[in-house]
């Protein structure tokens, strides 16, 4: 699972989760929610097809499919062990989940887990001819030797016309400029949104410290192995990951979109502007980095006041990212 995402409040919650399993992974699921919906102020994935690259054991994408009514969700991971676990837990219409989860599972969602290399997606036969509205890669990009190849392939062969690619990861500050240029090379994709969420990730790691520590103790009693795990386990506060965030690295969420789709939106927006001068202001902010504007979004079965809280915090984070640690 990923490092987690927390609001900058005492509890850090963005989602009031109900099931025991979901609550245990509160911050990791919040990261998925933030990347799929929160950053875009959307409330649902209804009718959308979602592909999760480097999905791990599949809990994140299964949560999205279940809670936000994606029409189809596919998770891909290199590790056969992770995929087997994901299939055991979440496939067959999400039937094999815990009793708690079954109650809130969405019968509309179809979910599939495939073993495959994100850098060789052409080899994953099941993907042939498929197009996705949302392609996510959460804390997977740093594992890839040639992430540009993955993004090129997704853009050419797997992304629907108005689809978005969401990349979330920790990036070395020295590499950010080059990576952003690579995202937009050949002018096929543009960065539609970018948010530095280092504060939210570090806060999640702090709040998750006890759980991470228990997990480490469960895995090993050996002091040396414990030290190594503490250093590298994503959720361990005072781990290498925690320490370098904000100093040498930033944790960033990028939303990429096909240039052609953005041009189309711009064109229709300016046509619209001619007719309805007033309403174009919102669409301008759509193209900016960290626009910080806030539209309410609904969480299934949740109230709007909760959503407002989330939006306000996103703005707070944006204003904080310029500060030093
Ligand atoms: C830090 S985990 C993130 C898992 C998940 N996205 C999440 O946020 O919970 C990184 C995952 O990437 C997978 N991975 C690494 N290299 C990969 C590759 N080339 N293709 C597909 N998956 C890969 C690993 O097996 C691991 O499950």
Automatic annotation (TrEMBL):
InterPro entries on file: Methyltranfer_dom, SAM-dependent_MTases_sf
Task: Cite the GO molecular-function annotations of the record.
Answer: methyltransferase activity
Annotated Methyltransferase domain residues: 46-185
Q: What is this protein called?
A: Methyltransferase domain-containing protein
């Amino acid at each position: 699972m990923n490092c987690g995402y927390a609001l900058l409040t005492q509890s850090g919650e963005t989602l009031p989760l109900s099931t025991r399993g979901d609550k245990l992974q509160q911050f990791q699921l919040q990261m998925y929610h933030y990347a799929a919906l929160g950053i875009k102020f959307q409330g649902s994935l209804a009718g959308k097809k979602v592909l999760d690259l480097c999905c791990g054991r599949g809990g994140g994408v299964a949560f999205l499919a279940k809670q936000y009514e994606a029409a189809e969700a596919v998770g891909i991971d290199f590790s056969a062990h992770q995929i087997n676990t994901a299939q055991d837990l979440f496939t067959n219409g999400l039937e094999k989940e815990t009793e708690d989860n079954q109650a809130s599972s969405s019968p509309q969602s179809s979910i599939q887990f495939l073993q495959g290399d994100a850098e060789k997606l052409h080899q994953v036969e099941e993907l042939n001819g498929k197009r996705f509205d949302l392609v996510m890669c959460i804390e997977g990009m740093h594992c890839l030797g040639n992430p540009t190849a993955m993004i090129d392939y997704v853009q050419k062969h797997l992304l629907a016309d108005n689809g978005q690619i969401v990349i979330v990861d920790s990036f070395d500050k020295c590499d950010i400029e080059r990576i952003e240029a690579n995202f937009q090379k050949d002018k096929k994709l543009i960065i539609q949104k970018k948010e530095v969420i280092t504060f939210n990730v570090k806060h999640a790691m702090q709040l998750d410290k006890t759980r991470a520590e228990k997990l480490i103790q469960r895995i090993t009693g050996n002091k040396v192995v414990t030290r190594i795990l503490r250093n590298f386990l994503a959720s361990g506060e005072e781990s290498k990951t925690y320490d370098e965030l904000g100093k040498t690295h930033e944790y960033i969420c990028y939303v990429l979109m096909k240039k052609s789709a953005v041009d189309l939106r711009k064109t229709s927006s300016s046509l619209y502007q001619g007719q309805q001068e007033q309403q174009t202001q919102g669409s301008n902010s759509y193209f900016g980095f960290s626009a910080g504007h806030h539209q309410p979004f609904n969480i299934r079965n949740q109230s709007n006041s909760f959503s407002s809280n989330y939006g306000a915090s996103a703005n707070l984070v944006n204003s904080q990212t310029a500060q030093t640690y």
